[in-house]
Specification:
- The chain is of the alpha/beta class.
- It is 35% helix and 15% strand.
- Strands 1-3-2-6-8-7-12-13-11-9-10 form an 11-stranded mixed sheet, with helices on both faces. The chain has a two-stranded antiparallel ribbon with strand order 4-5.
- Helix 1 packs across helix 2.
- It is globular.
C-alpha cells in the first residue's frame, strides 16, 4: 500500500499552514522533490506495527444494567483471569477506563472515543495478570480525566457510595467508588492533578500516587507526560502496598521512567512510626476553602500519629504555592499539545506508541462540540497560552518546578514525611442537569489546590481516610521524598491499625 502523495495545490495549502507563501509553480517544484522522501513512508506502512502479545483469554464484556450499576461506576464488566498463582491470586481488580485492556472497549469517559478497542494490554495489566489477578472490567472515569468531580463522564455521573447524589471525586471516579462499595478488591487510578487521591478522599479509600516514573505508563492514555502517574486504589493499606509491588519497576518502554527505585513495600507494614519525623505542611492547611470539619479531622489525625510516637511539628514551604501555580500552564498547555493536537500521544519521546489510539482519538475534531464543559474551558486556556504566548509559560513553569521540587527535597532532608489534608472539603453534590456553567466548573476543580503540586514535583503522595465529617469521608495526605513509598506505607499502616477510621 502506498501513502497518498500531495498535489501541487496540496503543497500550496501545506505551505500556508506553515505560514509560507508559495506559488503553484514553486509548489510543483517542491512536490517533484517530495516523492523520494515519501518512499520511506511506504516502507513503514508496509511493515507490521509491533505490539506486545496478549497472553490471557478474554471477551469484550458488556455494559452492565442499571440494576448492576447502582453508582454509575462500571463502564464495562468483563473478566480476564490471570495466572493460577501469584501475589494477587484471588484478588479482583477494576481498571480506570483510560487503561488499555486488549479486546475490551476503552472510552476514557468520552463519546468522542467510543468504539475504540485496544489491541494490546497496558504493561500494568500484564503484570497484574501474571501475578494472578482477575480483571473484572473497566471503571468509569471523567471525560479525558479533566475533572476532580464525578459529573463530566459519558455516559453519566458516578455517585458516592456514602451518599447518593454526591460526588465520588475524579477523575478516577468509578475506580474509587467500586472499591469503596466493596464490588472489587483493588482498582487502578491515574493522577495528573490528584485523580487517584481526590476520589480516594471522597470515597474513604486508600489511594497512592507513586513517584513519577515508578510505575510504567505504557498502555495508559496520557494527558501530559511530565505529570502522568498511575497507581493503586484499595480498601486497606496492605492491599495497596501489595499491588504497588506488582506494578512498580521499569518496563523499557516508558521514557517517563528513569532508573526507578523499587522496594518490597509490604515489608514496611506493622513497623510503627516511633521516632518518625512528620511535618505538618503549613501551606497545605492554608487553602481558602478548607472546611472546619476537614481541618479538625486531619489535625486530630496528626495528633494520633504523635500518640503513636511520631515527632510532629509544623513546617513551611513557600514554594508549595509556586508549584500549585506552575501546575496550570504545565497541565493546560501540555495537555492541549499532547492529548489534543498530538492525538493522545504527542511526539518527541522514545516510548511505545498506541497507533490505534492515535487514529481513534484524532476524531475528537469531528465531535468537539460534544466535549465536556471542563474540557472546553481547559482547552481554551491552554490554546491561548500556546497560540498567543508561544508556550513560554509552559516552559517557564517547568523551569520553576525544578526549584519548587528542590525546596521540598531540602525539607525531606530533615523530615521523613509531610502531612496535610488530601482535599479541603468532603464530597459535594453532583450538579443537576440544568446546572450553570459556573457550577459545573466549580464542582470539577474546587478541590485540586491541595493535590496538584505533587504532580508537578513528582513526589509520592497517599490519601488515607481519617474520619467522617457530616457523614462523609475525610482524607489525610502523606507525602514523601522520591521513592519513599515504603515510608508512607509504614506510617499509613500504623494509622490504620489504630481502629476503624470511621470512628476517628
Amino acid at each position: 500500500m502506498s501513502i497518498t502523495r500531495p498535489t501541487p495545490a496540496d503543497v500550496v495549502e501545506l505551505a500556508s499552514q506553515l505560514h509560507i507563501k508559495m506559488s503553484l509553480e514553486e509548489a510543483a517544484e517542491y512536490q517533484s522533490l517530495m516523492g523520494g522522501m515519501f518512499d520511506a513512508y511506504d516502507v513503514i506502512d508496509a511493515l507490521p506495527n509491533p505490539t506486545p502479545p496478549v497472553l490471557y483469554p478474554r471477551t469484550p464484556g458488556a455494559k452492565p444494567s442499571p440494576e448492576e450499576n447502582q453508582y454509575g461506576a462500571w463502564a464495562i464488566k468483563s473478566e480476564v483471569k490471570g495466572a493460577a498463582e501469584g501475589k494477587l491470586a484471588g484478588k479482583t481488580v477494576v481498571l480506570k477506563d483510560n487503561v488499555a485492556l486488549a479486546g475490551v472497549p476503552m472510552m476514557n469517559g468520552s463519546t468522542t472515543l467510543e468504539g475504540f478497542i485496544p489491541v494490546a494490554d497496558a504493561t500494568i495489566v500484564t503484570r497484574m495478570l501474571d501475578a494472578g489477578a482477575t480483571i473484572a472490567g473497566k471503571a468509569v472515569c471523567e471525560q479525558f480525566c479533566l475533572s476532580g468531580g464525578s459529573h463530566t463522564s459519558d455516559p453519566g455521573p458516578v455517585h458516592n457510595p456514602y451518599r447518593h447524589g454526591y460526588s465520588a471525586g475524579g477523575s478516577s471516579s468509578g475506580s474509587a467508588a467500586l472499591v469503596s462499595a466493596g464490588e472489587v478488591d483493588m482498582a487502578i487510578g491515574g493522577d495528573q492533578g490528584g485523580s487517584i487521591r481526590i476520589p480516594s478522599s471522597y470515597c474513604g479509600t486508600y489511594g497512592m500516587k507513586p513517584t513519577h516514573g515508578l510505575v510504567p505508563y505504557t498502555g495508559v492514555m496520557p494527558i501530559e507526560a511530565t505529570i502522568d502517574h498511575t497507581g493503586p486504589i484499595t480498601g486497606n493499606v496492605a492491599d495497596n502496598a501489595l499491588l504497588l509491588e506488582v506494578l512498580a519497576g521499569a518496563d523499557g518502554l516508558d521514557p517517563r521512567q528513569y532508573a526507578p527505585q523499587v522496594s518490597a513495600y509490604t515489608e514496611a507494614l506493622g513497623k510503627g512510626v516511633k521516632g518518625m519525623k512528620i511535618g505538618l505542611l503549613k501551606e497545605g492547611f492554608a487553602v481558602p476553602n478548607l472546611q472546619d470539619g476537614v481541618n479538625e479531622k486531619v489535625r486530630a489525625g496528626a495528633d494520633r500519629f504523635a500518640a503513636l510516637g511520631a515527632d510532629i511539628s509544623e513546617v513551611s514551604i513557600p514554594e508549595h504555592d509556586i508549584a500549585l501555580a506552575a501546575w496550570n500552564p504545565i497541565t493546560l498547555e501540555g495537555f492541549v499539545a499532547q492529548m489534543m493536537h498530538g492525538n493522545g500521544m504527542g511526539f518527541n519521546w522514545k516510548g511505545l506508541y498506541d497507533v490505534g489510539l492515535l487514529d481513534a482519538h484524532s476524531a475528537w475534531r469531528n465531535k468537539a462540540d460534544d466535549l465536556s464543559e471542563t474540557m472546553k474551558l481547559t482547552m481554551l486556556v491552554g490554546q491561548w497560552g500556546l497560540s498567543h504566548y508561544r508556550g513560554r509559560y509552559y516552559a517557564k513553569a517547568r523551569n520553576i518546578a525544578i526549584a519548587a521540587k528542590a525546596a521540598y527535597d531540602r525539607v525531606f532532608g530533615e523530615y521523613d514525611l509531610l502531612l496535610m489534608p488530601t482535599l479541603p472539603c468532603v464530597a459535594t453534590p453532583i450538579p443537576g442537569k440544568d446546572a450553570s456553567l459556573e457550577e459545573i466548573v466549580t464542582r470539577a476543580f474546587e478541590m485540586t489546590a491541595t493535590t496538584s503540586p505533587f504532580d508537578v514535583t513528582g513526589h509520592p503522595a497517599m490519601s488515607i481516610p481519617c474520619g467522617l465529617s457530616d457523614g462523609l469521608p475525610v482524607g489525610l495526605m502523606l507525602i514523601g521524598k522520591d521513592y519513599a513509598e515504603t515510608t508512607i506505607y509504614q506510617a499509613a499502616s500504623a494509622f490504620e491499625a489504630e481502629g476503624d477510621w470511621k470512628n476517628f
